[in-house]
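INFO worker-7 received task bundle
INFO bundle size: 2
INFO processing item 0
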Amino acid sequence: MKPIANEKEWEEALKELDILFDTAQPETQEGDRLLELCEAIERYEMYNSPLNLKEHILGPIYLAAFLFLYYVIAPYVYIKDKVKNYLNKKRYG
C-alpha cells in the first residue's frame, strides 16, 4: 500500500477502515488490508497532525493492543463459539 499523501486520502482510508473493522477476519485478505490501513493511518497522523504528546505516545499503544486482540484473542473466541454451537447441535439436534 502506498503511503497516505493528503487529507482526502486519509479520510478515504478512515472510511474503508470503518467498513473493514466489522467484517475482516484474521489471516485473510481483508484482515491484511485492515492492518495495512491501520499502519498507514498511524504513519500519516504521526507526521501530519500537530504535535500532541499524549496522542503520539498512546497511539502506538492502542495499535499494539488492537493487533494483540485481533491476532491473539479473536481466534480463540471464534473457536470457542464454533465448539459451543457444535455441542448445542449435538446435544439438541
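INFO item 0 finished
INFO processing item 1
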Amino acid sequence: MDSHYRSGKYVVPDYVVPADPETKYGNYSIGYSFGVQGVELEVDTATGQINVLNIWAAHDVGKVMHPKMCEGQVEGGVVQAIGYATSEKYIWDKGPYFKSRLQRL
C-alpha cells in the first residue's frame, strides 16, 4: 500500500509544500498540467452578450494511453474555463477566493 495512505486517510507527502497560513501561497499539488488556450469571441457592447467563435487548446500531455479520455479532459477544461470567464465571479485578495457566485447556485 502506498505510504501516503494510512488508516484510510490521505497524508500529504513531504515534497508538497503546504500553504503559508499568512500569505496562502504554497505548492497545492504534486502534479501540474502545461497548456494554453485561446478564444476568439464577439461581444455585443450594448447588451454584454458573448458569442464564442473559436477555441484553440494545446496541452503537453506526454504519451497518450487513451485518446478519447485525453480529449475529454482537455475539452472539459475548456468548458470550465468558459464558465469561469463568462458566468462565475471570483473575488481574490492575496490568496484563495473569498466570495463566489457558485455559492449561490
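INFO item 1 finished
INFO post-check item 1: Helices lie at 67-86.
INFO post-check item 1: Residues 5-104 form one domain.
INFO worker-7 idle
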